[in-house]
Specification:
The protein is α/β, with parallel strands linked by helices and 300 residues long. Among the domains are: 1-83, Winged helix-like DNA-binding domain superfamily/Winged helix DNA-binding domain (Arc Repressor Mutant, subunit A), CATH 1.10.10; 164-263, 3-Layer(aba) Sandwich (D-Maltodextrin-Binding Protein, domain 2). The chain has helices spanning 3-15, 18-25, 29-43, 59-83, 105-116, 130-138, 201-212, 226-234, 276-286, and strands spanning 48-51, 54-57, 91-98, 120-127, 144-147, 157-170, 183-184, 192-196, 218-223, 240-243, 255-259, 263-271. The strands form three sheets. Strands 3, 4, 5, 6, 7, 10, 11 and 12 form an eight-stranded mixed sheet that branches. A two-stranded antiparallel ribbon has the order 1-2. Strands 8-9 form a two-stranded parallel sheet. Helix 1 packs across helix 2 (18-25), helix 2 crosses helix 3 and helix 5 (105-116) crosses helix 9. The longest helix is centred in the first third of the chain and has 25 residues, at 59-83.
Length: 300
């Protein structure tokens, strides 16, 4: 087995076909097919199943691809470190953010990083499930991780506290509570809620907030993205609770801080001995504002 075969298998999984993967990697389609078959023979398993919509990874294929991604990412980081010079950095930086964190801050920091290192390739993932985020971090597949809570046994990483991000409630246009500067959580009794996937960190936080404030929610929808939750709440489907930075432009007038205050820390984790790209991104993130809810106020 070779890293090139891993890259081929990952491309097939991403594109859903050997032909599209071959075009993406600019190699001949027969060569791609031959390498995938050789990999399956060596492993003794079938990595992909053919469906009407294209090739999809099998159960064992998905397990293999997770580990293949770790190996490929490690190889790219090694090449980037070897090629890094005093004034230039090339390679790939893999960043993962817990869903809802750094929605405004991370893109700004990454844009500044790309301007500084134009040859640097940045890949960003947003992960709702803290268990999956922890698993990938422990496997060394990630260069920089934004999350709200430290992981157990983090001896191999350095964790930096950026600040604490306050949560806001998003209300529909014309809602009675928009007249307040800050909404008392118990005033939301009886409101329908737009919530998040059950295994997500955001829904876990919301569940704790509702319980601590003796609220029994009527869940009208579950969504996978904070932007979707805000849009649906703004349209009057229900209320939702999101980090302040996750409120998209144009919806600020429908968001209010809450009382008691709900907030969570923003932590940035880097591997010990992080390279120049990770260190530069950390410094750019330090320059961002991480506790921001004062711009959510009633319109004059």
């Amino acid at each position: 087995m070779s890293l090139r075969q891993y890259e081929y298998a990952l491309a097939v999984a991403e594109q859903g076909s050997v032909t599209a993967a071959a075009e993406l990697l600019r190699i001949a389609q027969p060569s791609m097919s031959q390498q995938i078959r050789a990999l399956e023979r060596e492993l003794g398993v079938t990595l992909f199943a053919r469906t009407p919509t294209g090739l999809v990874p099998t159960v064992v294929g998905r397990a293999f691809l997770r580990e293949a991604q770790v190996a490929v990412s490690a190889s790219r980081r090694a090449r980037a470190t070897a090629r890094a010079g005093a004034d230039e950095l090339a390679g790939e930086l893999v960043v993962m953010a817990q869903m809802g964190l750094g929605t405004r801050q991370l893109p700004r920091a990454l844009s500044a990083l790309r301007r500084r290192f134009p040859r640097l390739e940045v890949t960003v993932f947003e992960e709702p499930n803290p268990a999956e985020l922890e698993r990938l971090g422990r496997q060394g597949a990630l260069d920089v991780v934004l999350r709200a809570a430290p992981c157990e046994g983090e001896g191999a990483v350095d964790v930096h506290h950026m600040g604490d991000e306050e949560f806001v409630v998003v209300l529909g246009a014309g809602h009675r509570l928009l007249a307040a500067d800050r909404v008392e959580l118990r005033e939301l009794a009886g409101e329908p809620w737009v919530r998040f996937d059950r295994d997500s960190a955001l829904d876990g936080l919301l569940r704790d907030v509702l319980r601590d404030n003796e609220l029994t929610p009527a869940t009208v929808a579950r969504v996978s993205q904070t932007a979707t939750a805000v849009r649906w709440a703004a349209d009057g489907l229900g209320v939702t609770l999101v980090p302040a930075s996750a409120v998209p432009p144009g919806c600020e007038h429908l968001a209010r801080p809450v009382f008691p205050v709900v907030s969570q820390p923003v932590l940035v984790a880097l591997r010990r001995g992080a390279g120049p790209a990770e260190t530069a991104l950390l410094e750019l993130l330090r320059q961002e504002t991480w506790h921001k809810s004062d711009y959510f106020s009633p319109a004059p």
